[in-house]
Amino acid sequence: MTDPEAPSGLEAVFRAEWGTVVATLIRLTGDWDLAEECAQDAFAAALERWPRDGVPERPGAWLTTTARNRAFDRLRRERAGAAKMRQAAQLAQTEQTGASGSPPADGFPDDRLRLMFTCCHPALSLPAQVALTLRTLAGLGTAEIARAFLVPEATMSQRLVRAKHKIRQAAIPFRVPPPHLLPQRLQAVLGVLYLLFNEGYSSPGREAVRREAIRLARLLAALLPGEPETGGLLALMLLHQARQPGRTAADGTLVPLEEQDRALWDRAGIEEGVGVLEAALGRRVAGPYQVQAAIAACHATAPDAGATDWPQIAVLYARLAVLLPSPVVELNRAVAVAMADGPAAGLELVDRLAGTGALPATRADLLRRLERRAEAAGAYRQALELATAEADRRYLARRLAELGA
């Protein structure tokens, strides 16, 4: 045993081990609620014992064994029919095989990966996939998840219950899908992880969500090293995370990229992100996350705003528009073209677009650069009406004030 550090140390263990403990119990019992309840009991026991007795050498194994024993006791006491007894017998058998038992023979050694793919099964809606991933793998409480989705806690609780019920009713297997289904399912998992990251990236107060998304992406990249898009997503997250300290001013106002203090950026994080990206690109199977990471790398590695390789970024956005066609991608391509070839060229592309809330703000910036001040002010006002994030509203209001409007 080692000396306990503090409650913050236990919180770090919780973040690192919660998903493993819950995933193991779900595999052994097939009961999501029982798994979460017994995991909570195990962490409560750790909070009581570790400050007195010291932290075990293998805290994850201690927590998993404690949670498994709680589940065994619960099932044995309930004696609710043959199904419960079979679950208890399976748990008892793990006494001889170790805390985690014998994993399914699907070629993947980590139950968290199976849980990730189960949470992101296409039978569940995207909001349910994200909520279930946050709950079971990240260990966030229902109230925290409800705040992230801007819904009442009761609504989120019902959503989680329905998702678990659907998994049971549809008999969704707790496993990584077979190879012929992996590409389709992997995209869902990557999409959910990136959505989680953006949920934390868009608000400085949700740093825990952002860091958890990065941790899960690291796990996925380590467990599926042959999939270049897992590396692409991890690189994209790392590069965005490295620039996070310069994104907002002290009062919460959004700082444009060209005005950010690059001395605040995390250079070690940038180097790691670039290294992960180069390894992914080395497989020569470029996907949308790798292309987005390459764009982020162009920004992150430029010594100053004036040295940004905008022609290369415009080429990358053109490629991304083929891989991931959307108005948002086209809008970003227009911005890159404006920086590479002048605001008039970018404005010509912007005026062909519709259907994205960012369009008025982009038009306003390009009109401002063209010295068409009255039109720019009108576009900024329109963007201000559409903006919901406080940081965005402050940025737009500042730009409007600079125009003297």
Automatic annotation (TrEMBL):
Q: Which Pfam families match?
A: DUF6596, Sigma70_r2, Sigma70_r4_2
The UniProt record lists the RNA polymerase sigma-70 region domain at 20-79
- Compositional bias segments (type: Polar residues): 90-100
Question: For the region Disordered, what residue ranges are annotated?
Answer: 85-105
The alphabetical list of record keywords is: Sigma factor, Transcription, Transcription regulation
Task: Check the record and name the InterPro entries matching this protein.
Answer: DUF6596, RNA_pol_sigma-70_dom, RNA_pol_sigma70_r2, RNA_pol_sigma70_r4_t2, RNA_pol_sigma_r2, RNA_pol_sigma_r3/r4-like, WH-like_DNA-bd_sf
Q: The RNA polymerase sigma factor 70 region 4 type domain covers which part of the protein?
A: 116-166
Residues in DUF6596 domain copies = 185-280
Q: Which family does it belong to?
A: Belongs to the sigma-70 factor family. ECF subfamily.
Question: PANTHER family, from UniProt?
Answer: BLL6612 PROTEIN (PTHR47756:SF2), BLL6612 PROTEIN-RELATED (PTHR47756)
Q: Which NCBIfam families match?
A: sigma70-ECF (TIGR02937)
What is the protein name for this chain? RNA polymerase sigma factor
Origin organism of this chain? Answer: Nonomuraea spiralis
